[in-house]
Design a protein that fits this description.
The protein is of the alpha+beta class and 231 residues long. The longest helix has 22 residues. Helix 4 packs across helix 5. The strands form two sheets. Strands 1-5-4-6-7 form a five-stranded mixed beta sheet. Strands 2-3 form a two-stranded antiparallel ribbon. It has seven helices and seven strands; from the N terminus they run E-H-E-E-H-H-H-H-E-E-E-H-H-E. It starts with a strand and ends in a 24-residue tail after the last strand.
């Protein structure tokens, strides 16, 4: 199954390295504004505190660097949230350079950006901070998520569907499409990334009955929560 982007006028077509860098910068700003939030539970990842969320991102960054032959720098278990963030911020430019040298990382770089940006949104909801407007990671994150949904549609024997948001349209799966899902970027993104419940997904703007499609929103690492965790 494939996904195709039909149009994205006005969307930020930044590189994977640029998107990844903006996520790190935003984490630093958000955590500076919420200095006492390290032990706060992240609702979208209830097994993690904010500190553990940052550690996950630092560990993924380290894994990418070592995969390309760089030196490992594991996150110390005793490191505080500011120390873990500092480690990630220091290691991040090395990952950026590797993505650029690897032809911007292609699929691997996009997956790294999607994971980091998804967790930036997780952090924003945990802190009560608004979602970003313009962001260098929006488009690449969406590309990965729509592609994953398209593959899931195929595994479930479902035809393709069109995904529409402000200034962008994708085909998930194959054409001709049999359903259309529309919404604001943050609502669509969170639905595709397993952060919205089936009831929330069904309540979005659908052309066609949403019920047959809901099972396809469980794929890869993503599964919609049974109950609403964010609005």
């Amino acid at each position: 199954m494939t996904s195709s982007r039909i149009r994205v006028p006005g969307w930020n077509t930044a590189t994977a390295a640029e998107g990844y860098r903006q996520v790190r910068e935003n984490f630093a700003i958000l955590l500076a504004d919420h200095a006492g939030a390290a032990e706060r539970v992240v609702p979208a990842c209830p097994q993690w505190t904010v500190r553990e969320l940052i550690a996950h991102l630092a560990e993924i960054c380290d894994r990418v660097i070592t995969r390309f032959g760089g030196e490992a720098c594991p996150v110390p278990e005793t490191a505080s949230a500011p120390e873990v963030l500092k480690l990630w911020l220091e290691r991040g430019p090395e990952a950026d350079a590797l993505l650029a040298a690897d032809g911007d990382g292609k699929g691997r770089g996009d997956i790294l950006v999607m994971d980091a940006f998804t967790h930036e949104l997780d952090l924003r909801y945990a802190l009560g901070a608004p979602p970003p407007g313009a962001h260098a990671a929006w488009l690449r994150g969406f590309e990965v998520l729509v592609r994953g949904l398209g593959d899931s549609l195929g595994r479930h024997g479902l035809p393709g569907m069109r995904i529409e948001t402000e200034g962008a349209t994708w085909i998930a799966g194959t054409e001709p499409v049999a359903a259309v899902l529309s919404g604001a970027p943050v609502d669509l993104y969170r639905s595709l990334a397993g952060r919205r419940s089936p009831a929330q997904i069904a309540a979005m703007d659908w052309l066609g009955d949403p019920e047959p499609w809901l099972r396809a929103f469980t794929w890869g690492p993503f599964a919609p929560p049974e109950e609403e965790i964010e609005r």
